[in-house]
Every structure is written in C-alpha cells, then in structure tokens.
Amino acid sequence: MIEATELTKDYGATRAVDGLSFTVRPGIVTGFLGPNGSGKSTTMRLILGLDSPTAGDVKVNGKHYREHRSPLHEVGALLEARSVHTGRSAQNHLLALAHTHGIPRRRVAELIDLVGLHDVARRRAGKFSLGMGQRLGVATALLGDPSTLVLDEPANGLDPEGIHWMRNLLRGLAAEGRTVFVSSHVMSEMALTADHLIVIGRGRLIADASVEEFVRRASRQVVRVRSPQAAKLRELVLADGVSVESVEPGLLELSGLSAEQIGETAAAHGIVLHELTPQHASLEEAFMELTSAEVEFRADRVELPVEEAA
Amino acid sequence: MSAVEIHVPRLEHVGRVTQARVARSEWTKLHSLRSTRWSLLAAAVLGIGLPCVFAAVTSSHWARMSLHERADRHPLDIALAGVNVAQLAIAVLGVLVITGEYSTGMIRATFTAVPKRLPVLWGKAGVFAVVTFVLALPTVLVAFFASQAILHGIPQLQISWSHPGVARTVVGGAVYLMLLGVLAMAIGAIVRNTAGGIAAFAALFFVIPPLMNVLPSSWNNAISPWLPDAAGRSIFTLSPGSHSLSPWAGFALFVGYTAFALAVSAVLLVRRDT
Fold first, then answer.
1. A68, A16 in Cβ contact below 8 A?
2. First vs last C-alpha separation in chain A
3. How far is residue A210's CA from residue A207's CA, in Å, rounded to a whole number?
4. What is the pTM of this model?
C-alpha cells in the first residue's frame, strides 16, 4: 500500500511533482504512466525517501519509508537509473545488500537463479547488458521478500521474451497479494500488464482509474458508418455534441452517438448502411489524448527534451 | 503465449537493519572491489619497499657521504618514508569508498536498504579505519625492522625499538594512515564526486602546506603547525621542531579535524537528496 498526499517536489525553480495524491492498493498491478520527464522517477524517489518532498507526504505500508525497521521487507525497488556499482559482481552486489537485513546467502543464490543470471553472477556488473542489468535490478527488488514493489520502467532494455517474463512476474507478484507499482511511458505495455492506471503529466495527476475505465473516459467513442446515402445521414444526425467527419465519399466517422442510435435513425429514414462499426480507441491513443495538453515538449517546438531530474 | 507461473520463493525471516549488519555489508562492499585490493596492495608494497630501497641506497653511499650529509640522515625518516607515499593510495581509496557509490548509482540501492543513512556512514568509516590500520600496522613494523636490518653496518643509523618515542613514532605512522583514510572518506561524502574529492584532499595536504612558505616566516610558523597535514605528521615525528605541535597535541588536533569533517558529512548525508 502506497499513499501519497499532495506530494510536491521542486528542484530549484522547476516543479517536478505537483500536488500528487493517489493510493496504490495491494493485489493488483498499478501502472504509473506519463511521458518522459513527467515526474515518475521523482515520485518513486520520494516514495523511497531518496529525495525529500518540498510539500506533502508519502507513506508506504502506513509509515514513511525511513521509519521502517526492515525496509527491504516492506519495499523492493528497481530504479530507472542503474543503481549498481559497476566494479562489483552481481552476486556480491546482492550479498552486500542482503547483509544489511541479515538475509542469508542462500536467498541471493535463489534469486540469481530466478532472474536467470546464474552464468554471469560472478562477472562485473559494469559489463552487463541493459537487459541483464534490469534482471539484476529485479533480483535486488525481491531480495527482502517485500510486500510492496516499486519498479521504474522495468521493461526497459528487455527483449520480447524478457518483457513477457516480466509481465508474468509482475502479475504473479500481485496475485500473491503484493502491491505492485510499475512506471512506464509505453502505454501498450501497461495495457497488458496493469489492472489500474495512475497517469501524470508535468507532475500533475491526470487520471486514476482502472484500465477499462481509462480507455472509456479518455477516448471519444467513434462510430464508422459506410453508406451510399452518407450525405443524407449526415444531415439527419447532426446535432449538439455530435461531430461528423467525412473520411472519404460514402464513409463517415461519427462521435457523440452510439452505433445503436445511428442504426435506428438510418432505419427510420430508410437509409442503407453498408457498415456500422464502433471504433475502440487504443490505449496508446487514449494516453496521447489525455496527456497531449500536459506534455512539456511538443514535437512542433524546437526544444531538446531534458532528462528527468536525476 | 501462455502465462508461465513464476514463483518467487518466500523468505521465512527478515531481520532488522542494525549497525553491525550494515558494517558487515560495508565490509563485503569494500573487499569485493578490485580497486580496493590494488590500492591496499600498493600502499603496503610502497610502505615497505621504499624504506628498504632508501636504506639500501644510504647503506651503499654511506662511505662517500660528507659528515654534514651523514648528520642529516635519520633512521626513522628512512623507516617511515613509505607512509608519505602510502597516504596517497589510502586517501584516494578513502574518497572512492563513498564517491564510487555516487558515480555508479549504487548509493540509491544502499540508501534504499538503509534509509536512515547514518549507519552507512559509520559503517564505512569504521570498516575502512579497521582495514587500513590492520594493513598499515604490519607495514610500518616490517618497514622499521627491515630498514634497520639493511642499515646494520652503520651504527649512527641504528635506533632501538625501546628508545624513547620510537615505538610511538612507528605505530603513529599507521595511526596517521588510518585517520587520514577516514578524513578522506568524509571529504568524499561531502563533495560526492571522485575528482572533486581527490582535488580537495590534494589541496589540503599537498598544495596549501608549501604555499605557507610564501608567507612571512613569523606567519608561516604561526599557521603551519595547525594545518591538518602538519598536525597529522606530528604523531609520527620523533622529535618535533620548535615550530611544531607536540606529538600528542598534533594528534589530538588531527583527530579533531577528522571528527569535524565526519560530522559535517553526517549532517549533509541525512539532509541532502540522493
């Protein structure tokens, strides 16, 4: 369980996180979505007490992270920026962290096997590929058998097989009743992994909803209509709150009316329909729609995107 | 693709974070890095090797030296010559012990495991101090007895272990290295950057002291003994000059500098964002 209340963080004059309030519940995978630079990593650092909030508050399992006596048992974290000494082997990295909580050596070996790093466990972590680094990050996060997981872009650098593995792992962890909080800027990945979404843009909360609800709310429901009498139909349905777009002669895209309403109107006026298809906006489109106003750097502006404050 | 169950093994018991556990973690971190092993090996080899080389060179040139030149030689200068070089290896390693974590991002993993942070600082300082002393003590002892053995043909350069101050001076060399390592670590924790930490250390120990010679000698004599470098040296100096602090006063001052730097780094460590 993670509870953020009016969480705010300034870096100099830049407000990275702006009055965020949300609750991440156990038993489901909660996706944390936002464009790059929207404050996801900052929020995660605030949750872990790595940075202190300018205002507001965030608690994990009922306490500030710093107040926990066995922090690794409460929260397992994988942070976007690498958090491993490049000169140390994966095994010694895990062992050093395990020692802080008196976690036995056996646990380190188990996790190295689980994430599939057995063959490279004694190699310097600096030589690891991005994917291997992410697997080591997952092993680090699971070290203390935590009830809450905070994972920043865990799919980064993974191959398709690795992404599939990560998805199963996250779903499995949630199914065991753990709180799983995963950030991503890739909507489609979250559509497959998450049950619930918290969406932010420029540090502000945009949406806090289940995946289905998010798509429903965010997308304009568009119905595709093909008819030889398209022009007549257009005149019949035009009203307040209804918009009609002519894609090509004989093909309309209507929003503001359901397929049923359009079909009934057509039938009442004897209009022949060749196609009547409700279009579901993809999650990606819903995401773009919602965040477009909040994206800091638009493509039409000639500005280089800056890295999220590290 | 069907969902494959991934079973994460459960952990029966998870302990609390204690200072002893954090110290053990820091020990694992320290000995599992190649840079540590090489720096410590370099410190030991130079600490023993240089006095032996100097003793051998002095021994072979003794017959050709003027009386004046002979009077300038002191057996403990030869025995502890290595400390001056070993201090560079120890200081660089001391800085790296903490800045290496910042440069690689390891510090985030460290502070996630130990979010109260201060146990990490005490653990690092304690472990590094013990490791440095355990290595430096045999180094200075071997350097002393080996250089004395090499100089055995020169009665003027023989000095007994039981001679007043000799044991304190030789062991003082090891104590100096230990404190220096902790001071360098504290500087690293304040600066949080390897290049900056080493530069700050070098300025304090290698740049500022010779600059004092530019000052009028009354100023120089008044200021120089109080600098960290001179204060630290007094503990491994047999007979301090008229403008130096007494060995124990210098030692106390050096401990004070180290404690001050450590206290500043502790305050900053807890307050700053990572």
1. no
2. 25
3. 9
4. 0.86
> Measured between beta carbons, which residues in chain A are less than 8 angstroms from residue B32?
88-89, 92, 95-96
Would an 8 Å CB–CB cutoff place A140 in contact with chain B? yes
Q: Is B33 close to A88, i.e. CB distance below 8 A?
A: yes
Q: Is residue A307 pLDDT above 50, yes or no?
A: no
The pair of structure tokens assigned to B37 is 């092993």
Look at residue A309 and tell me whether its pLDDT is greater than 70. no
- pLDDT one-digit tens code per residue, A114-171: 999 999 999 999 999 988 999 999 999 999 999 999 999 998 888 999 999 999 999 9
**pLDDT at residue B52 in the model:** 97
CB B17 within 8 A of CB A69: yes
Contact: A102, B105; criterion CB under 8 Å: no
Q: Which residues of B touch A72 (CB under 8 A)?
A: 14, 112-113
Is some CB atom of chain B closer than 8 A to the CB atom of A114?
Answer: yes
Q: Do B14 and A171 touch (CB under 8 A)?
A: no
Is the distance from CB of B109 to CB of A136 less than 8 angstroms?
no
3-state secondary structure chain B: CCCCCCCCCCCCCCCCCCHHHHHHHHHHHHHCCHHHHHHHHHHHHHHHHHHHHHHHHHHHHHHHCCHHHHHHCCHHHHHCHHHHHHHHHHHHHHHHHHHHHHHHCHHHHHHHHCCCCHHHHHHHHHHHHHHHHHHHHHHHHHHHHHHHHHCCCCHHHCCCCCCCCHHHHHHHHHHHHHHHHHHHHHHHHHHCCHHHHHHHHHHHHHHHHHHHHHCCHHHHHHHHHHCHHHHHHHHHCCCCCCCCCCHHHHHHHHHHHHHHHHHHHHHHHHHCCC
The complex's ipTM? 0.92
φ and ψ at residue B117, rounded to 5 degrees: 70, -45
Q: Are the Cβ atoms of A172 and B7 closer than 8 angstroms?
A: yes
The 3-state DSSP class for residue A258 equals coil
Tokens of A206: 């945009």
- A185 CA to chain B: closest CA distance, Å? 22
Question: What single letter denotes the amino acid at residue B155?
Answer: P
Which residue of A lies nearest to B117 if distances are taken between CA atoms? Answer: A66
- Give the gap in angstroms from C-alpha A50 to the nearest C-alpha of chain B: 5
Pairing, β A29-33 against β A14-24: unpaired
Residue A158 and residue A135: Cα distance in Å, rounded? Answer: 9
Residues of chain B with pLDDT under 50: 1-2
Q: Which of B1, B7, B25 sits opposite A97 (nearest CB)?
A: B25
Q: Is the pLDDT of residue A297 over 60?
A: no
CA distance A261 to chain B (A): 39
